[in-house]
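Subgroup meeting minutes
Present: P.N., E.W., G.H.
Scribe: E.W.

1. P.N. recapped why we're keeping a running log of single-chain structure predictions: easier to compare across weeks, and new members can see raw inputs and outputs side by side.
2. G.H. added today's entry (288 aa).
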Amino acid sequence: MKNARAAIMLVISIVLGLAVTALAVVWVSQKAAVASNKVAVAAVDIELGSRLNAQMLKVVDWPSGSLPTGGFDDMKTLQDRVVRTSIQRGEAILNSKLAPEGTQGGLSAVIAEGKRAMTVRVNDVVGVAGFALPGNYVDVMVNFQQDAPGGKGADEKQHISKTVLTHVLVLAVAQEASRDDTKPKVVNAVTLELSLADAEKLDLARNIGTLSLVLRNQIDQGNATTVGVRKSDLLGESVRPAVAITRPASPRPTIRTEAAAAQVPMADKSKVEVIRGVQKSRADLDLL
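Output recorded in log:
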């Protein structure tokens, strides 16, 4: 009797085990079917401006419920496409990160439509001690000598510092355009992304004065307008008023009119002074 019960329990256990195994197999197969979508990802770290090839890519399974928008499932469609931003290994290749088809590689591929790239010479001070890196935004300030009002010559020139460009994207420092490295780099040249009008302003500014880059917060979109700072503003000097030099007028000759001459009292001609030796006396004369 006991042997029969043991046999029955053994059979039940086997049946339950087989049922659980079957359910697990069905569950795993369903999960596998859900994750069967293919997506092309980066097999290595890819720098911006690079042209894609088969060695840089691989295809992996991606959950269908979280497929990235603009992804690719065939590496052949990505051959020779140029990336506009750095891509990390394992990151999905998206159309928004690629330059239009037919674009050549290099820095020109990452310049936004309607923009230009312009390089300015910097040093460890102008370049914000190397913290102005690709992907950062800077303001451009120029220091120059401005003619005083009236243009009275070199002695009347005054120094002025003025911010001429704001929220300018740094495309590259020296010959490096990678935006993944955050370590400061002291270089002698920085390439900026500008509109054509701003490029003209920058070209004029670097020829009339000394440039300085001012690093700004990446999420700060504000553009404050200033009138610049002059030496008199910095030192608190007031503008001296113009001093008018006056000269004394030369005396004009006095012209007497007949009326004025009539007002002059006439000398009394009815008396004469008589001097005898050391004695003086006056005598009356009868003029009639």
